[in-house]
Amino acid sequence: MKQLRIVILFCLVILICSACNASSKESGAAKVVESFYHAIVNQERDQVGTIACAAWEKTALREIDAFMGVKAELSNVTCSVKETNGDTASVICTGKIAASYGNEITDFPLDGRIHTVVKEQGEWRLCGY
């Protein structure tokens, strides 16, 4: 009986550890998408190498360049993993980028975008939307 309890306890510990590991993998995918939007509003072109996959890096730089010289801020932005499949994840976000062009503020909603995030060199990288 005592051995059965030990086996059950061991299985529960394994299950909890697996759940925690899966959650951190998914949150890493969502975090890289949020990092991309922070890089846009902070005009941090040098961060693209740690955010974008190699195939999407030029496009990511163009996205950041589009906001260069413009005052922008994130409003209520949160991202979460919609689906994972091995080393690929789909991430969705809510919120918007509010950009100030002189006296005019233009909103760029993030809702409806499905971001493709891939594992590249062991790290999650944004690879488009």
Write a short abstract of this structure.
The protein contains three helices and five strands; from the N terminus they run αααβββββ. By secondary structure, the chain is an alpha+beta fold.
Secondary structure layout plus pairing:
Elements: H1 2-41, H2 48-51, H3 57-65, E1 71-85, E2 88-101, E3 104-109, E4 114-120, E5 123-126
Antiparallel strand pairs: 1-2, 2-3, 2-4, 4-5
Notes on the protein architecture:
Helix content is 41%, strand content 36%. By secondary structure, it is α+β, with helices and mostly antiparallel strands. It has a single domain (27-126), classed as Nuclear Transport Factor 2, Chain: A. Strands 1, 2, 3, 4 and 5 form a five-stranded antiparallel beta sheet that branches. It is globular, with a radius of gyration of 19 Å. It starts with a helix and ends with a strand. Mean pLDDT is 84; it is low at 3-25.
Salient structural properties:
globular, signal, 5-stranded antiparallel β-sheet, 129 residues, 36% strand, Nuclear Transport Factor 2, Chain: A, alpha+beta
Query: Which structural category fits the helices and strands?
Result: alpha+beta
Q: Would you tell me the overall average pLDDT? A: 84
CATH architecture: Roll
Task: Count all strands and give the number.
Answer: 5
